[in-house]
Amino acid sequence: MTAMNGFIFPRTELGGASMLPPMPWHYSGDLLTVEFRTDPSRVAELLPDPLTLVPDDQDPGAVAMIFADWQSCGDDYSELMDPVRAQYKEAFVVVRCMYQGTVYSRCVYIWVDKDFALVRGHFQGYPKKLGSIWQTRPVAVGKAGPRIAPGGRFAGTVAYHDRRIVNAYVTLREESPTNGFVNGHPMVHSRYMPRIENDGTDSYSELVTMSGRDVEVGPAWRGDAEIELLPSPVEEVARLEVREVIGGYFRQVGTTFAGGTTLEG
């Protein structure tokens, strides 16, 4: 019998066709964030048992809309010499929740523009969909982009099935001690797969947690922000109706993912 090799599908005898290299996975990128407040009941409807809202005094309606322009690779760095396999963009919506007395961040919606990042996210528990994501890139020379400095103006957009669903805008004002607070905890994710028998049960259903290691961050900047969440026949992000914008942020980050921990399942 032939031994099958590769981190994830397709597994082959040689293992070179796998969509993902083995962990660890390294990431470097630009993050543009807009934080806002919505009706906490709209956050609660996105939290499966046993997750619950954070207490009223911890801002349970706070949401972060994050755009990320990433470069990523495995431990042999081969993707960096074949950049089409390394570079991708994504946008994701993060809320906070409680599990057994601890506060976690949780990604409730996310769109990405490369298949390898989609599959990697499903392995980790992110509910990734393929979409069209764009964000303004900073520049160090010339006029075709903002500086990471006071007055720098950035935008991020998301479209899904050719329909624009998010517009976000940030104008930097000053350096900040943080990049916001909503996405500042270990992540708690759900990993599941429905049974092939179509009997309403799952082959597996797990609650997992994870965080990065070897984290490096550039200076954080904050400023004024605007955000629009637009209706769509196949998306629900607009249900997180914007009641109040908290602020906008920009930061360059680097991190490594090398696995997580199963909490339940």
Description:
- Helices cover 6% and strands 48% of the residues.
- It has 265 residues and is mostly beta strands.
- The chain has one domain (25-258): Acetoacetate decarboxylase-like (Beta Barrel).
Key structural traits:
single chain, 265 residues, mainly beta, Acetoacetate decarboxylase-like, 11-stranded mixed sheet, 3-stranded antiparallel sheet, 2 helices, globular
Show the helix and strand layout:
Layout: E1 25-37, H1 40-44, E2 62-73, E3 87-99, E4 102-112, H2 115-124, E5 128-130, E6 132-135, E7 153-160, E8 163-176, E9 187-194, E10 202-210, E11 213-217, E12 220-229, E13 244-257, E14 261-264
For the record, give the distance between the C-alpha atoms at the N and C termini, rounded to a whole number. Answer: 32 Å
Main beta sheet strand tally, sense and closure: 11 strands, mixed
Could you please say which CATH topology applies here? Answer: Acetoacetate decarboxylase-like
Order of helices and strands: EHEEEHEEEEEEEEEE
Rg from alpha-carbon coordinates: 19 Å
How large is the share of residues in beta strands?
Answer: over 45%
CATH superfamily: Acetoacetate decarboxylase-like
| CATH architecture classification | Beta Barrel
The CATH class label is: Mainly Beta
Which geometry do the CA atoms define? globular
- Which structural class matches the secondary elements? mainly beta
SS element count, helices: 2
Poorly predicted spans = none
**What percent of residues adopt helix (DSSP H or I)?**
under 10%
What is the number of independent domains? 1
Mean pLDDT: 98
Number of strands: 14
